[in-house]
User: Fold this.
Amino acid sequence: MKKLKSAVLSVLLIALSTSVFAAAKTATVAIVPFKVNAEKDMGFLRDGVYDMLSTRLTKEGEVEVLTRQTVEKALPATPGPLTEAVGRELGRKLGADCVLFGSLTVLGNGISLDAKMLDVAGAKPTMSFFEQSEDAGGIISRINAMAADINEKMFGRTAAAARPATATAAAPQPQTAQPAPTDPFAHPEKMLKQPSGLGGGAGSPFATSEESAREFSPQFWKSAAYKLAFNGIALGDVDGDGKTETVIITQDKVVVYRYEQQRFYQVTEYEAGNKGINIGVDVADINGNGMPEIIVTSLTLTRKALASFVLEWDGKAFRRIVDNAHWYFRVCDLPDRGRVLLGQEPRFGSPFKGKIFEMIWRNGQYEPETPVAVSAEANVLGLTIGQIVKGQRETIAAYDPADRIRVFDEAGKEEWKSSEKYGGSTLHYLGNIDDQGQTERPIYLPMRLMTLKPDKDGKSQVLAIRNFDIADRKAEVFRVFNESQIIGFGWDGLGLQPEWRTRKMTGCIRDFALGDFDNDGELEMVCAVVLDEGRIITTVPKSTVIALKFAK
Assistant:
């Protein structure tokens, strides 16, 4: 009995000592990006590991993880390799309580991780970790276990997902199966297979139904971060190989990617002869030759005129079949007529006043055919046509210059206008200066709207993005979007009403597309997300791609 009491007392003392850190104050942790030892560029794996550890260690009011920028800014002044002594000195400079650092080593398909967690004051012993796995998917589960160990032993936080006990020789604890990439060069964030819905893990609802308050579990994939500012995204089989490619435009490039065998990789890049600013992209076989075109809306460098172009695969490379076209372009997928190309002619001084037409392929170019009637100012980049209103075959929805959504009947008469602003983009046309002392007057272009085809009950939805401006769009010229949300609208007889919406996500969604992104025969919504536009001299642009799987 005396031994039992001593053992219980020891456990209590350990528990108390580990919890004092969290109870006394908010502990601060500096995570040093892990050194990577690999033949190939594995920066995306390092970034993924960093993000996972930062998320799993942070707890409001108890543990704060310093920003990566803060830590990296202090690193150049740190001499030599990062030893425990150097780590403690770094921690003291940053005012951190703990420093986490280590390395990732990739040999063939195998990945190993060495890490140390330092208590800067030296009151707690250094925690050392060594984990290894046959692939990137396996190392993720070990990082989760490592974070659970740190939370428990350093901060006194127990977790349900703690590391399984290894004291006995019993069979290993069964683990919930999760799909993981078999390729070690795939990004750590994976597509999660759940029974239904959009988006994230159990206990963390990603999307919520407005009517029933039903929460949808996440089913999403996220790419590595690219040092580019994405301006648009589209899906389609652009090289005729039977597989869906992802076409992404930056200001001056067209880049083709493919998701295949759980890898997202670049197929090719096109920038020859491009001297404008790309602002929109679509993929569709409009000329009817069986090979979908890449249709790019582009402004001239002055941002006051159009120089759009079209690419098509000739069996060996992409070539321009249309060059310097003075049209804004957008493709709509209509229930009865399939993919239709819309074009809007420019009007000097405003991108919202030109006439809109359905375009056809004739004489080796796109030519206007049937007018599209709207009774208010609109730009075709933010216009969609579909069976939005019951009883109408082709209703139009479009953003106006103030980013409010308007709905027009088949004759072009306005039926509804939103009271709130949606969309939100920093892509812009330069209007005429109208105030003395004004240097430029940006006229912001609208984002994409998309109408889904009707379901079995005849109901259709309009998909829209809502980007959140740090100034709440009160600044007429200055815009910075730091959060975003996807919303599905339905027509209730009086107007468009939100039927579901995702939670807010970090970054600005620049564009989105629907299609079989991962070539598994199912529909996904793919978004180009700008995390940093790189507009400040000391920063670089940063974007990522997310894919959301729709329930059948």
Remarks:
- The two ends are 61 Å apart (CA to CA).
